[in-house]
Structures are given as C-alpha cells and as structure tokens.
Amino acid sequence: MTRHQQLALRVHLPGARARQLGFIVLLAASVVAASILPTAALPTPAPGQGRCNMSTTTLPDLKILRAGGISCNFTDPTASVDIYDPTTLQSKPAGNLTMARYDHSALRLSDGRVLIVGGEGPDKQPTLEVEIYDPSTRTSHLAGSIATPRCSPSITQLADGDVLLAGGSLCPPYPVQRLIKSIELYNVKTGHSGIVSEFRVTRYLHDATLLKDGRVLFTSGIDSEREVVGENEIYDPATNKLTAAGAMTVRRIRESIVPLRDGTVLFAGGVRSYRYPDNAYKSAEIFDPRTNQFRPVGDMNSGGYCPGTALLKDGRVLLAGGAWSTTDVRPLNTAELYEPKSQIFSPTGKMTTARTCPATKLLPDGTVLVQGGFFSGGVVGYLIRSSERYDFTTGKFTAVPEAQPATEPVASHPASH
Q1: Amino acid 173: pLDDT
Q2: 141: which DSSP letter?
C-alpha cells in the first residue's frame, strides 16, 4: 500500500478520532478541538476516482464539510467544497476555496468558521496561504500566511482565540516523509503567524488536547521510523515554551481522549503499534495537569478503539461501539460508562446497531445522539445511515425513527499500515 493510498482522506476531528478513523477507512489527521464531536466514517474512493486527501470538518449538526483534495490518481487538485450528510450518504456542493490544495489541515473555529492551513497546491508546490471558509455564506477568503510550509499539522484553538499549528511534514511528503518539529502561533484577527517553539522529539499524527488551564498537551504520534512516540510534552501559551510531561503507563495510539470536568483527561483503549495488527488495550489512564503525570485507572470491560464518546451532564463518560482488534474490525454493539469518582468502567445498555466510529452529540435533555458509523463485513466496508439515542437515566439505546437502518458498500477494507 502506497503512502498516497494510506492517506486517501485527510480528516480533522477532535481528540483521537482522526487517528482512529485512519485505521479503518484510510483516514488520517491530527487536529484537536476542545469539544468531543467525532464524525461518522467517510467513503474512500477507489484510486483514480473521486477525490482524496481532502480535509473534513464536523459541523454542529454532525454533517461534514469536505474541502479541497486531489483526484485519487493524484493528478488534479481541487478547490471544491461540499457538505456530506452521513444520514443519507449524500453530499451537496458548498462553494470553493480560494485555491486548490490537498494534504492540508482544517479546524472549526469557535465562531463557526473553518480555518484551512497548509498543504500542497498545483504542481505539488507547498502552500503558505491561510484561508477561512464561512459555512453560513459558503464562501472562503484569504487570511494571511503561515511561517513554514507544512502538510497535515495539528491545529488547536487556544482560549484567547489564537491557533497553535504543530508539527506536520514538509510538502510534498512523498516519496520520503520529512517531519517538522517547529510550532507556530497564528492570529486569526491579523492573519500573522510566527514560530514560537519546537517539539523536543519528532512526532507526527500526534494528539493535541487543550487543557482546562489553557495549556496544550501533546501525546503519542509516530516518529520518522513509524514507531509510537513515548515522550509527551506540554505547550504553555503564557511562556511559549514546551516542557516534558510524564509518560503514559503504556505506549498507545488511536486511543479515546476525553477531557473531564475537573480538568483531568481520560485516555482509554487504543492500540500499541501504528504499523502492526494488534488487539486493542483494555487499560485506561488519567492525565492530571496539576502534576503533569499519568496514572492508571480501572480497565475497560472490553478493549477497543474508535468508539463514539460523549461527556454526560453528570460527568460520566459514554463509550459506545468501536472495534476491538485491528485485524478483526467487526463493529461492537456494546457500550460502557466511566465514572470519574470511582475511576471504574461499567457496562451499560447495548446499541441497536453495532457500529465503529459513530458520531455522537450530547443533546439539551442530557441524552446522547449516536449517528452513522462504519460496519465491516468481510472485505467490503459499509457506511451506516441509522441513528439511535442513549438515555443515561435508563441505560438504554433506542433507534431514532426518522433514520431507517440501512447500509451502503463504500470501499475495500484497508490492510494495516
């Protein structure tokens, strides 16, 4: 499998969602926001068809904004934008970017607009220009430039509205991927971006988590040898410096990451290797920003990666669905709750449909909407249209009547990479 095939779609989602999806439907990314709104899996076009290496951004209604990209035979970059509805498996045109680009990163800003950064343009030239797309008007405008051309950096919006761009790789990243250690700070208001720090260790496809105290925690990722990085780091916007953080209890990647109400962060499940098939961890741990250390908590009832996650109103965490092995990615219909006070996972009701990488959204009444996701049957992958709702007071899932259960074949199941 070529690197282009592995990165058939660029996805920019909160938490570890992008890395998790990357293992299932050839999606890869490393963008983080403070909220936890994962997206449903997206279809991967066959080589030579459709568009690949686009950015995708989850909107508040769980529809997905897909921007830019390149034809899957990697000859024709595009500036097109569309909005994909995972409940219908259909997309509608939504304007254009100011320029064709691919291998870029995208982030939904706090004001609802979408920041587009980096990547490559026509003739495989790196792109310094930044642009901002407005879903309400379906238009995009240039908004300054970055200091260093880079493909697929992580993007995190800080408490003051500035945006931290970290790592990525030099463009073009093929045939040899050269990783970038520098970190820059982009001002959304002025369009200016400048280098402020650099990683202590080389990392790519890492996770970036905005902490409650305003700092950013960088964890995991892979190095230039495609080994999982064990060193963790914290960026402090008050000093523009990176400092070392404690190591996880085990090296893990594609784990679920959920910031908790008390400022600590839950890291659960995941797998031990980016390259080799493996069963998912059952273990979980907590990062404590007061000590900058990780500590183990109770194990999950079943190992897993890429469940739908949601922080409930009572402070517990719902983990629904997912898959337990990178060689057998049949979806799970099981769900469990993490209780921060006891630090224990307990089973809850089973979903009406087994699904991996579903979208989740906490609704005003405290229930959780679980939508879409991915179903794998043999060598053919299927997207799921159906939705269901979880009621934490009863511990039960019920199907949402408006969405009739249905599946659509979308792509051959990827080999591990």
Answers
A1: 62
A2: E
**How many Å apart are CA 139 and CA 162, to the nearest integer?**
22
Among candidate residues 41, 4, 117, the one with its CA nearest the CA of residue 331:
41
Residues 364 and 381: beta-carbon distance below 8 Å = no
Q: Pairing relation of β-strands 232-236 and 241-245?
A: antiparallel
Cα(335)–Cα(395) distance, integer angstroms: 10
pLDDT tens digits, 83-116:
988 888 889 999 999 999 999 999 999 999 999 9
Location of structure tokens 């594609």: 254
d(CA 162, CA 183): 13
Decide if 38 contacts 73 (C-beta within 8 A).
no
Q: Is-contact 184 203, C-beta < 8 A? A: no
**Residue of 306, 194, 200 lying closest to 253 (CA atoms):** 306
CA neighbor of 36 nearest in space, from 18, 56, 53, 23: 18
Q: Is it true that the peptide bond before 122 is cis, omega within 30 degrees of 0?
A: no
**β-sheet bridge partners, residue 297:** 284
CB atoms within 10 A of CB 59: 16
Our CA angle for 359, 360, 366, nearest 5°, is: 165
CA pair distance 153, 78, nearest whole angstrom: 20
Residue carrying structure tokens 């700070």 = 185
What CA–CA distance (Å, rounded) separates 118 from 109? 16
Q: How does DSSP assign 225-265, residue by residue?
A: TSPBP--EEEEETTTTEEEEEPPPSS--BS-EEEE-TTS-E
pLDDT given at position 341: 97
C-alpha to C-alpha distance for 281 and 212, rounded to whole angstroms: 27
- Give the three-state DSSP class for 159: coil
Those residues of the chain that have pLDDT short of 50 are: 1-49, 377-380, 403-417
Answer whether 161's CB lies under 8 Å from 173's CB: no
Q: What would the two tokens of residue 288 be?
A: 């404590």
Q: What does the alpha-carbon distance between residue 341 and residue 332 come to, in Å, rounded to a whole number?
A: 26
Name the token pair of 219: 């964890």
CA angle 167, 99, 411 (to 5 degrees): 70
State the pLDDT at residue 88: 83
Q: What pLDDT is attached to residue 165?
A: 98
